[in-house]
Amino acid sequence: MSGQWYEGRVALVTGAGSGIGRAVAVRLAAAGAWVVGCDLDAEALAATGKAIADAGHHVTTVVGDVSAQADVDRIVAQLPDGRVDVLANVAGVMDYFLPVTEVDDLTWERVMAVNVTGPMRLSRAVLPLMRAAGGGAIVNVASIGGLTGAVAGTAYVTSKHALVGMTRSIAALYAEDGIRANVVCPGGVETNIGRTATPKVPWAYQRLEKSFARTTRVAKPDEIATLVSWLGSDEAVNVNGAVVASDGGFTA
Ligand SMILES: NC(=O)c1ccc[n+]([C@@H]2O[C@H](COP(=O)([O-])OP(=O)(O)OC[C@H]3O[C@@H](n4cnc5c(N)ncnc54)[C@H](O)[C@@H]3O)[C@@H](O)[C@H]2O)c1
């Protein structure tokens, strides 16, 4: 079914080296998209690029940091013929479950830079291209941390609530240009995000753990990618500004 959705389309996917971003890149390429994938991790990104190319699909990879304007400029310069139909902002980092009283400036600034400033910079870069082309779709990956305060530290929760707000703002402001923006809020997913998810403050983590008891299942990355793929496709033409949880019922 989704095999035809992206034929002739260009999809820019951030965080394409691992986890959900890799699953999105692979899925959109298999559905016909020319994927422009970016990631900070050159080796991981190359592996995604090889998997897509070996399957006979189109892919361009660009190593870069979504929070850095110069890197965003380089990433956007790689779009074939300056075209982009879908932007999937997937790259993100956790915050070691730090409560606000213990958060250090470096962690705060990095989490906000990657999870909020990055999607803003990419949206700012691609929206003029989408407007000129007469339409497009942005799909952001936030988290249930964008819906509730009880699943991560203060920086992560703040960043994901901000990303939900950014998505709604774009949806409201650019609908008349034929552009849709939606945001997916996953619950727990089996990925490599654990690198920034080691709890550093025991008392805070113990309080958060009480809410983790609500977890019904941990998702596979592709179970999130299916939703990103649908929201970015024409099948979702009437869906704009939606905040969609994919969490097995955690926030039910
Ligand atoms: N794994 C979960 O349980 C879960 C739950 C809810 C939301 N999310 C969100 O899903 C998204 C993807 O995370 P994941 O779980 O697949 O993690 P992951 O660590 O497996 O993948 C994230 C990728 O983003 C890349 N990245 C990090 N910072 C970057 C930057 N500044 N520029 C470019 N690339 C960068 C990393 O190198 C990595 O390859 C994140 O936004 C995360 O917050 C994850």
TrEMBL record:
Top-level taxonomic group: Bacteria
CDD domains (alphabetical): SDR_c
PANTHER family (UniProt xref): DIHYDROANTICAPSIN 7-DEHYDROGENASE
A molecular function GO annotation: oxidoreductase activity
Keyword Oxidoreductase: yes
Family of this protein: Belongs to the short-chain dehydrogenases/reductases (SDR) family.
Organism expressing this protein natively: Phytohabitans suffuscus
Name of the featured protein: Short-chain dehydrogenase
Keywords from the UniProt entry: Oxidoreductase
